[in-house]
Structure formats: structure tokens, C-alpha cells
Amino acid sequence: MIKVIIVDDQPLIRDGLSTLLGLREELEVVGTACDGAEAFERVKELHPDIVLMDIRMPGTSGVEGAGLITKYTTDTKVLMLTTFKDHDLIFDALEEGASGYLLKDMPTDTIVQAIKTVYAGGIVLPPDITSQMLKELKKTKELEHGACSEVPKEVEELTEREVEVLRELGLGLSNKEMAEKLFITEGTAKNHVSNIISKLGVRDRTQAAIFAVRYGITTF
User: Fold this and answer.
1) Which of 43, 60, 85, 127 fits as disulfide partner to 37, beta carbons 3.0 to 4.6 Å?
2) 126: Cα within 13 Å, side-chain hemisphere
3) Which pTM value belongs to this model?
4) 48, 76 in Cβ contact below 8 A?
5) pLDDT tens-digit readout, 84-137
């Protein structure tokens, strides 16, 4: 069973999700918390596999909580719960180590599948929503700075195949899924991902995926 902690400052949402997810035989809700700091303490105590965490909370936010959990604990992954209006915080949360995000109004089956994906080592970046959020983020950046970011020079270090793999990373594909799509072995896909992470100077595959999406290497 996948052990889950649910974090939300609203008791109705927190308890509702606990009840719904607790009914699924593949999941075990081992605890709840009301902000990022409490979530961090609960993770140290209960050692869950996944933390399902609201992004906006009074006190310690979900972004800060994700950073604490991914930096100071091991083997626990964070999946953010958001609203579309949170697009300005989503990439911050991903950069703090979160493994993806979901909108709060998504069906329970979608949330369960996302938890399974993250548990298996994947990331969750819903394509349609991510595309729209990037458009909104780009508009904001252009208003603030007058132009959008150029693609960093590190991309020039990637081989043509590595660029293809990076593009698929931005879609949230696992090594196995990339291997099938690109007609390579899973081991080869894993090696490409490792090389990409090294050449781009990012922390992990999630950061590589963010890079791909942010700089337009992955398009939706």
C-alpha cells in the first residue's frame, strides 16, 4: 500500500480527501496536517510515501513545506494540490522539489492515478493545464520584463537524442514510456536522463522537466 499524508488548512477538504482516498485499497492515509511546517513534522514521524499538499496555506505554505520535505527527508515525494489561479506558485513548488501538481476539482480517480505515478518515480504535469498556465506566466513575465526568457546556452551541449528525451521529460513520461515512444531501451533512456541532468546542472528529472516546459523545448 502507498502511505499518504494529506495537507490542507481547510478541514472540509482535508477530511473529505482523507475519507475518499482511504476507501481505495491501494492507498493508506496515515495522517493529516494543516500547513507545511506541520506536514514536515508528520513526515519525520510517519515516513509516508506521498504528501498530497495544498499550495496556498496560512503559516507555512505548501511551497515552503515542499522544500522542507524534499530537502531534509528521504523517500517521501510531494504532490501539490492547486487551483488554476495558483500558476504563479506552481513552478516555485516544482523548483522546491515537488513531483507535480493537480487541480483540487479533479476526479478522485485522477488523484489516485497521479499518486501512483509519483510513487513509481514519475512526475505529474497535466498537459492542457500546464500549457495554459505557461501562457499566463509568459504574459506576466513579458509585462514585468518586456520579454520572455531565452533558452540557456546549456541546451547546446545536448545531443539531438537528448533533446528528444528532454522534450518527453517535459510531458512527464517515465523512462519506460520514453523508451517505447523513442524506440530505445529503458536503460538507454535512463542514461540519457542522467546525462541531461548533468549537462543542464539541474537537481533531478523534475527540474529537467520544468526546464523543458519553461523554455519551450516541450510544447503542448
Assistant:
1) 60
2) 21
3) 0.80
4) yes
5) 777 778 888 988 999 999 988 899 999 999 999 999 888 898 877 777 766 666
Full set of structural domains in the chain with CATH: 2-129 (3.40.50.2300), 153-214 (1.10.10.10)
Residue 110 near residue 126, CB atoms below 8 Å:
no
Burial (0-12, 13-18, 19+ Cβ within 10 Å), 165: buried
Element (H, E) at 77: strand 77-82
Q: How far is CA 24 from CA 1, 3, 8, 19, 112, in A?
A: 10, 12, 20, 9, 8
52-94 pLDDT, tens digit each? 999 999 999 999 999 999 999 989 999 999 887 777 788 889 8
C-alpha 186/C-alpha 174 separation (Å) is 9
